[in-house]
Amino acid sequence: MTTEVSLRDVRETDLPIFFEHQLDPDATSMAAFPARDWDALVAHWTKIMSHVNISVKTINFDGQVAGNIVSWEQSGEREVGYWIGKQCWGKGIATAALSQFLHHVKERPLFAHVVKHNVASIRVLQKCGFTISSKGRFSDAQGVPIEEFVLILT
Ligand SMILES: CC(C)(COP(=O)(O)OP(=O)(O)OC[C@H]1O[C@@H](n2cnc3c(N)ncnc32)[C@H](O)[C@@H]1OP(=O)(O)O)[C@@H](O)C(=O)NCCC(=O)NCCS
Predict the structure, then answer these.
(1) Is the CB of 89 under 6 A from ligand 1?
(2) CA of 145 to the centre of ligand 1 (A)
(3) Which of 32, 90, 127, 146 gets the most CB atoms within 10 Å of its CB?
(4) Domains of the chain by range and CATH?
(5) Measured from the CB, is residue 123 less than 6 Å from ligand 1?
(6) pLDDT per residue as tens digits for the range 14-41
């Protein structure tokens, strides 16, 4: 595991970095999640940073902002999600960050929805103890059907 990974509270100065991370077309197609424009991103982060029922952390790697990790409630279930800047991929950062975050968010079961083609994210979750519990389908912004797995940590 990468030992240089740490989590801290999100600062407003992190937002331009998160903005750049989610603009990357490889990342958005991997996650099947469209990029937000700046105003939408600020509105989204302002909401989640102040929400009592949402846990969110900035992921630091060697003192630099590498991404973010968040847990929220959806349809009565507690979810987890994360995003790592492309320049930091493949270094074990998401795995280390999720494993630390699981000590912070103690509610179980914990769920993650991951599109089937996001092999890296599925691997991250499985390395942290999640297992595939079901399959689902949704339509992306263009109406294209996308298959997903729901993973669970009990
Ligand atoms: C998915 C994501 C979080 C992975 O982050 P990361 O820090 O590179 O992940 P890690 O380095 O901790 O681990 C990735 C694991 O997946 C594997 N992996 C990476 N790319 C892979 C690929 N294309 N196919 C198969 N395995 C792959 C790695 O080898 C590693 O497994 P290993 O330790 O057994 O070798 C990152 O790519 C990302 O943020 N993508 C865009 C946003 C996103 O998809 N978020 C998740 C939404 S559910």
Answers:
(1) yes
(2) 23
(3) 32
(4) 5-153 (3.40.630.30)
(5) yes
(6) 999 999 999 999 999 999 999 999 999 9
